[in-house]
Amino acid sequence: MNRSAFYASVRSSLFGGRLTQGQVKGMETILNKWQADGLSDARWLAYMLATAFLETGETMAPVTENLNYSAAGLRRTFPKYFTVAQANAYARQPERIANRAYANRIGNGNEASGDGWRYRGRGLVQITGRANYRTYGMENSPGDALLDAVATRIMFDGMINGRFTGVKLADCFNETTTDWTNARRIINGLDRADDIAGYAKKFHAAILAAA
């Protein structure tokens, strides 16, 4: 890949005409991992880049889950775990919110254990919960999920091998199928599926232009 051509294309099509050093660094980590792993389907690469673009707010750098919810936000996002009264009591308290919302599931202990906050979402594709951190060898060092190389490795493994939802890249992009929309099910149902499909097509065009 001619990376200068790739960056010139995505700079104009996706990043508003300007790329920061951080954005380039994040994409370089992804491109280097792709090359080192000997992968070849440009659609897979495009969809992973688009996923990182969406999930990180276009920074292309690992992020920590924002849990600073209002009461209304808690009811929309975690309706099973917060009544109206509880949402009012927990609003704008990220640590307390995490400890309640993620208690007693995904490998976490109860609310008092602090596991919800300790194992909150981090990365390019945010992993959440003690069990998932244990899977990736970070139970004792969850902050490692914010390292570029680690976050990229997790994204590749989860999306290629279907570890996040059971759906994997090969289900959506193969010899007979190109499904930019339903590929969102690899991560999180169809939340913002059309948006990410549009981003992925632009990344794909840039990859092909730079081949």
TrEMBL record:
Organism domain of life: Bacteria
InterPro entries (UniProt xref): Cell_Wall_Dynamics_Protein, Lysozyme-like_dom_sf
Parts of the chain that traverse the membrane: none
Coiled-coil ranges (or none): none
Protein name: Chitinase
